[in-house]
Amino acid sequence: MRKVTIKDIAKQLNLSTSTVSRALRDSHEIGIETKRKVLELAEQLDYTPDPVALSLLNSHSNDIGVIVPDISNPFFAIVIAGIEDVAFAEGYHVVIYQSHDDYEREVLNVKHIYNRRKDGFLVAVATNTTDFSHFKNLHDKGFPIVFFDRIYEEIDTHKVAVDDYEGAYNATKHLIDQGCQRIVHISGPPHLLISKRRLQGYKTALLDHGLPYHEEYVWSTHFDSQQSIEVARQLLKSAIHPDGIFAASDNIAIGCHAAITEAGLTMPKDIALIGFSDLPMAAMLNPPLSSVAQPAFEMGRSAAELLIKLIKKPNENTQSITKVLHTNVVIRASSLRKT
What we know:
InterPro entries: HTH_CRP, HTH_LacI, LacI/GalR-like_sensor, Lambda_DNA-bd_dom_sf, Peripla_BP_I. Residues 1-45 form the HTH crp-type domain. Keywords: DNA-binding, Transcription, Transcription regulation. This protein has 339 residues and is α/β, with parallel strands linked by helices. The protein has 12 helices and 12 strands. Helix 5 links the parallel strand 1 (63-68) and strand 2 (93-98). The radius of gyration is 26 Å and the shape is elongated. The N and C termini lie far apart (67 Å).
């Protein structure tokens, strides 16, 4: 069925489209009788306003964009649930975009959000992004942007992250407390801020507890279980012979878990393993995976609240806020040697 337009109403009532438009907006310039005829016919024809046209009139679309690397990642799915919880209550629709960790796709997502007149957007930066000019250009124009999880520090806007350093420190300390001496860290992509902070937490925990830091004990991969299983296979064939592995994400840890089992080794006796994120499936592995829990839902809520404040009251939110959420270590059988 063809969508009814203002032109259809105007034609049937022999009015101009501008008169019909003003009548639908309850303008004081239009008489009561004309408004009545327009509204009655609009209801009869089941007319619904064009949201794009309304956004041009009102300067707001009540849509916000969310760019995530991969919606199939349970962590980002939970963050989005938190975003939608706040957005719905505030009268905003959420439009989801995926970068698939690809810079070019991320740039296109940003352009689409701006060109379709969304009111602002939330973004977790793609793994392959090293040029941030597509964000900076919009921020310089005053377009509302909030970074979450994978943040970019150089743009002066709101950000929401977890304390990656704290989580990594406590995860490494847990492995040390279990008697591990050769603890390998399998990091995410080295240029990402979350990878740098988690590496620093690992390194500091070792030094604070009298263990040396060896660069050759730090390996890196993408936040992907398929790629990480290959890295873990290579690690297990190396001369390092780790007795503990701290993985920078649960997806990486899942790859390690599979590689350890495949090699005929046991957790935690041969290798104690801990991840980061505490995805729902972590507890369903055999043995269940220890992990650093992130408050993903709270992250989504906090990011949405900050963005909506930027949209509604830009002049009152000129001071950028970086909200850091705390983590906690969830200990399960994959790392628990001592009870």
